[in-house]
């Protein structure tokens, strides 16, 4: 989800950052938003637990009704063992394309025996709220819900409809994500609370804010070799495992072509100011001459940056053989690819088959991967983000980013709706435990988060 893991920079190279500005948000609203987050964590919205999704959706509905929304404004839809949720703030112009606020209700599974605390009971300690989903993604869900309530109470009338839409399986198969994108494909843009975000240094000062405008395509393939097999005491010239091992070696040695887009160039331009000298020089050279082979080689040698300059495919699981005393009849390897925006999935699949260079190998695409192009860096969105962030950290640098993972934005972009990850969490990389044990979020974000969401929505929904 978060941008913070994509930029971990040497603290000695970080310039002095702006001081935070206390956002003018009433204390009662901050308390209410914190209460929504605490309640949200208590719902065990993991894959297949439909009753908890429905209970959570009903809780959100009742909370929003308390601010003046009606049943006609709210839509709860059970779907594929989960549920989706939507609430609409009606606009002045029914013909205008709506603005979607996007998030997800589901969380990664968590077992009580693994955690220091009950993962589904919110606990506040030392300024952090602990619990599964407290960061990913129930924090910004709670902030968006509170913002929708605040806008309703203050009588704000947007030009287009503003619709908060929550999926139910973003962490797994994303079937509800795809359905929601299809349902709202007429939207003008999406502001996604499950992407982007701010990075703090070890001193707690802001380093940079990442605005996510693109995602690499996630795709899994399985390559399989087969053979007649036989008794292990009578080996012959063919062996499914040996043949597969040679194919894996060829895939490991291959590098996909260097690529770039306006997001990666903007990212390198900004990041070069903070990176260590060798990387900084390569970033600057790449920006000056996109595709520069020497610069690309330096960036590709660093796991932090290789995904920004090319498609990557790596072996992740391996199976083979059926008995200790028999020659293998089959061997398979799973290849996980993160595909550069704009590259068709089938093109990468064909390239893997070409690299395998074995007439007996077969390749299968797992699941149903979806690809999409990056969203344009819309000047209106960038200006709105600039204004909103200045309410919190005046002058903090905004860096457009392309993430290696996937969020609901992928599906909106695939149907032609520009989508931007604008999470309001500012966090130190060392405090990011999303998907892990003892997930937590710093609560000092809440006033700034509410100010940021309100400002962004009011600017873009005029």
Q: Please give the CATH class of the largest domain.
A: Alpha Beta
Beta strands, count: 19
- Report low-confidence residues grouped into runs of 5 or more: 1-19
The CATH superfamily of the largest domain appears as Zn peptidases
Beta-strand percentage range: 15-25%
Binned, the helix content reads 25-40%
CATH level 3 topology of the largest domain = Aminopeptidase
Number of domains: 2
Task: Determine the structural class based on helices, strands and strand pairing.
Answer: alpha/beta
Can you describe this structure in just a few lines?
By secondary structure, this protein is an alpha/beta fold.
Characterization of this structure:
By secondary structure, this protein is of the alpha/beta class. It folds into two domains: 4-215 and 373-460, Aminopeptidase (3-Layer(aba) Sandwich), CATH 3.40.630.10; 230-365, Alpha-Beta Plaits. It has helices spanning 27-41, 50-65, 138-153, 175-183, 240-253, 262-271, 277-288, 293-300, 306-309, 345-356, 379-390, 409-414, 446-460; strands spanning 74-79, 82-89, 99-104, 123-125, 128-130, 162-167, 189-192, 197-200, 206-215, 217-226, 230-231, 312-320, 326-327, 330-339, 362-365, 398-403, 419-421, 426-427, 440-442. The strands form five sheets. The chain has a six-stranded mixed beta sheet, with helices on both faces. Helix 3 (138-153) crosses helix 13 (446-460). The model is unreliable at 1-19 (pLDDT under 50). The chain has 13 helices and 19 strands.
């Amino acid at each position: 989800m978060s941008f913070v893991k994509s930029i971990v920079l040497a603290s000695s190279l970080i310039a002095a950052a702006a001081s935070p500005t206390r956002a003018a948000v009433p204390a009662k609203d901050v308390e209410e938003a914190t209460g929504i987050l605490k309640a949200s964590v208590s719902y065990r919205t993991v894959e297949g637990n439909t009753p908890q999704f429905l209970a959570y959706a009903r809780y959100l509905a009742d909370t929003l009704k308390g601010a003046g929304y009606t049943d006609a404004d709210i839509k709860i839809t059970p779907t594929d063992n989960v549920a989706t949720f939507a609430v609409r703030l009606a606009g002045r112009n029914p013909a205008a394309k709506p603005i979607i606020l996007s998030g997800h209700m589901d969380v990664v599974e968590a077992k009580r025996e693994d955690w220091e605390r009950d993962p589904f009971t919110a606990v506040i300690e030392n300024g952090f709220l602990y619990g599964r989903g407290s960061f990913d993604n129930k924090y910004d869900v709670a902030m968006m819900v509170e913002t929708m309530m605040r806008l309703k109470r203050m009588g704000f009338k947007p030009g287009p409809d503003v619709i908060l839409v929550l999926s139910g399986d973003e962490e797994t198969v994303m079937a509800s994500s795809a359905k929601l994108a299809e349902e709202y494909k007429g939207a003008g843009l999406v502001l996604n609370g499950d992407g982007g975000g701010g990075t703090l240094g070890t001193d707690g000062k802001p380093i940079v804010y990442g605005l996510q405008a693109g995602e690499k395509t996630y795709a899994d393939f399985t390559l399989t070799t087969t053979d007649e097999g036989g008794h292990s005491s009578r080996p012959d010239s063919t062996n499914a495992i040996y043949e597969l091992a040679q194919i894996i070696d060829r895939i490991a040695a291959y590098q996909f072509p260097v690529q770039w887009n306006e997001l990666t160039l903007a990212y390198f331009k900004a990041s070069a100011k903070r990176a260590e000298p060798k990387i900084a020089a390569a970033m600057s050279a790449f920006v000056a001459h996109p595709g520069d082979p020497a610069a690309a080689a330096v960036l590709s040698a660093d796991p932090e940056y290789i995904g920004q300059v090319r498609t990557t495919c790596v072996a992740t699981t391996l199976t083979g053989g059926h008995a200790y005393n028999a020659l293998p009849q089959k061997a398979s390897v799973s290849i996980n690819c993160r595909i550069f925006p704009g590259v068709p999935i089938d093109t990468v699949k064909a390239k893997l088959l070409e690299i395998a260079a074995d007439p007996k190998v077969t390749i299968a695409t797992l699941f149903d991967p979806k690809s999409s192009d990056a969203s344009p860096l819309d000047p209106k969105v960038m200006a709105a983000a600039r204004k909103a962030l200045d309410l919190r950290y005046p002058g903090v640098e905004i860096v457009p980013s392309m993430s290696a993972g996937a969020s609901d934005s992928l599906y909106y972009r695939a149907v032609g709706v520009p989508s931007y990850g604008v999470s309001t969490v500012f966090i130190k990389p060392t405090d990011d435990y999303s998907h892990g044990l003892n997930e937590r979020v710093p609560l000092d974000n809440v006033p700034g988060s509410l100010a940021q969401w309100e400002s962004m929505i009011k600017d873009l929904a005029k």
